[in-house]
Amino acid sequence: MTLLLVQMAVVLLTALICGWVARRLGQARVIGEIVGGVLLGPSVFGRVAPHAWAALFPQNSLASFEVLSSVGLVLFLFLVGSELDYGHLREQKTATILTGTLSILLPFAMAAGITPLVRSRFAPEGISGFPFLLLLGIAMSITAVPVLARILQEREMQSTALGTLALMCAAMNDVCAWLLLAVALTMVPYGSGATPVSQRLLWLVGYLAVMLCGVRPMGKWLARRRADAGLSYEMLAGVVAIVLASAAATEAIGVHPLFGAFLAGVCFPRVGRWQSAIHMRLDLIVSVLLLPLFFALTGMRTRLDLLNGASAWMWTALLLVVAVAGKMGGAVIGGRWTGLPWRESMALGALLNTRGLVELIVLNIAYSAHVFSPALFTMLVIMALLTTMMTTPMLNLLKVGEQSIKSRRFLA
Fold it and tell me: CATH number of 70-291+311-411: 1.20.1530.20, 3.40.50.300, 3.40.1280.10, 3.50.50.60?
């Protein structure tokens, strides 16, 4: 227990300092927190002070980290799902569906083109092609809604037409990505690996039916009866219990607990007072205490020393180019098709190219399921960091949302 408390203190202080530095450099705080996790891993701290690193983070102590970070991710994915706005989706239905679909299909198609080459070099033994393609395609096409929302808020773009369209496309991307992830994980030996694939898919369909046709209507019924009342202590405890039960159900099926948590958020009633209360009460402990542990765990798994030759860095560059070209290309084509000017279409592509935290979650799931090797995991972590760091400079270059930032600086 003493070691765990010291580890948590070191991780939280590192995340705090690196997040502050990131904000000073014009980046989102989460970028600094992710970099802080990498700094605490074997690639930096472990190389600079190997004995101190081994004493602070012995391998047999990381199980506690994994459990705590998993609980944090379950609550975080529930919050992400609970904040999806169906109203905005209906208002911009055509533009969202077209742009969101193209921003998924193009990076998926480009990922499919390089899958045979990447799989032959970096896939662990015994992984079949289709689940590998699905997971690589998801890694190339996903957008981090929380990081995107934070960037839009900092630039005061969250209520603009472009900002709303970007959020809706990103939300659609995430829903599709989590569904594909659930399908992919039924085909690899994750969790209850002895269960046949057909049976796991059947259980998954049954679970979706229970949540969407049972839990979600029940939440709507409760919202109609008690929408004027606040979210009491008992109701909050009940919501968290349902989230944990949903996550446990998908874990038992052999998919992943995070998918169950996300779907529980999707089924949560859209009552403004309840959503605000849930976010206010859960987000603080998740963002401040539990997510930094996940960043630290990701840093432990990131092995920059495995990229020790020109060939490895060329593969990293290829993955980066494919990710950026596919994601931005699909968004730009969709934006132009729906009538957006070139500058706003490029800005939409830059916004949807934000990966960040959600990408790291997907990569850790693929790593834990033994679909991605440590080298490929490290390459994709670098890709996630760089694509997220590109967003703010590209928006500045396109002069999108810049006026609000200048106004705030003038007022300050």
Answer: 1.20.1530.20
Nearest alpha-carbon partner for 83 in 228, 271, 212: 271
Enter the tokens of residue 366.
């693929």
DSSP state of 179: H
Using DSSP's 3-state secondary structure scheme, residue 375 falls into helix
In this structure, are residues 99 and 348 in contact, taking their beta carbons and an 8 Å threshold?
A: yes
When pLDDT is cut at 50, 70 and 90, the band that residue 89 belongs to is low
Q: Which of 214-223, 234-243, 303-312 has the least mean pLDDT?
A: 303-312
| Residue whose tokens read 């799931």 | 365
Give the DSSP per-residue string, 3-41: HHHHHHHHHHHHHHHHHHHHHHTTS-HHHHHHHHHHHTS
- Decide if 319 contacts 122 (C-beta within 8 A): no
pTM for the model stands at 0.76
Task: List C-alpha distances in Å: 278 to 2, 224, 239, 263.
Answer: 32, 18, 9, 16
From CA 291, how far away is CA 262, in angstroms rounded?
16
For every residue of 184-203, DSSP letters joined together read HHTTTT-SSTTS-HHHHHHH
Structure tokens given for 176: 């599709």
> No. of H helices and E strands in the chain?
21, 0
